[in-house]
Amino acid sequence: MATYHCEMKTGRNASEHADYVARRGFHGKRGDLIASGHGNLPSWTGGDPNVLWKAAEKYERKNGAVYHEVVIALPGELDFEQNMALVEDLVSKLAPGRPHQFAVHAPNSSLEGEPNPHVHLMKSNRMDDGIDRPAEQFFSRYNPSQPEKGGRKKASGGRNRMELRDDVIATRKVVAETINHHLAINGHDTRVDHRTLRDQGVERDAECHLGQARIRGMSARDRDEYIGMRGRNRGSLSS
């Protein structure tokens, strides 16, 4: 059964995190990068997303997010080409008109040794309005009466906490629907669900993330028992 995982977060150390996502420098030793790309970059970046992130770190307001990120598990039921089509669809829906970069990693699971493909999508919150601005103006405050004199408007600008919460729920739903569409068109019956187990009517606790260090410390018997428990839980969910 395909596993649903959609994590959303923000941060300020954008260029450092971009190196991790793109597996640049010493991060390259991980050897799990299978695809990467970027889009909607302003002209002053010269097509280099790291120029964008360094400028964002410099010019975004000090208490604001420099980047937004979505990390999404890709279904193992799909092959490489099918998952790349899914990634393209997800990026177009989650970062329309916004500067972004993405990377697909496929490390082997520490627990079961199976490939664990997932996509990291980093995006700026600044929406394109067709106005060409230099870097220092690009990240300045938006001017609604004279947009050409201010910075780009933020996607989250002017929204209250409840509206932002609804945006998170809507994003999770879009991700699930997009994954399910690609599973369906590629002939798979399995589906993912963005709702909590409680909202799905499933009476069991959600799985916790063990982490590589804890998994390495497990005995072979403990691993087998945990994997068996996961299989029983997933079976009851799909029945």
UniProtKB/TrEMBL annotation:
The UniProt record lists the keyword Nucleus: no
Keyword line: Conjugation
Location of the region described as Disordered in the Swiss-Prot/TrEMBL record: 139-161
Residue span, MobA/MobL protein domain: 16-213
Keyword Ribosomal protein: no
One Pfam family linked to the record: MobA_MobL
Family listed: Belongs to the MobA/MobL family.
Protein name from the UniProt record: MobA/MobL protein domain-containing protein
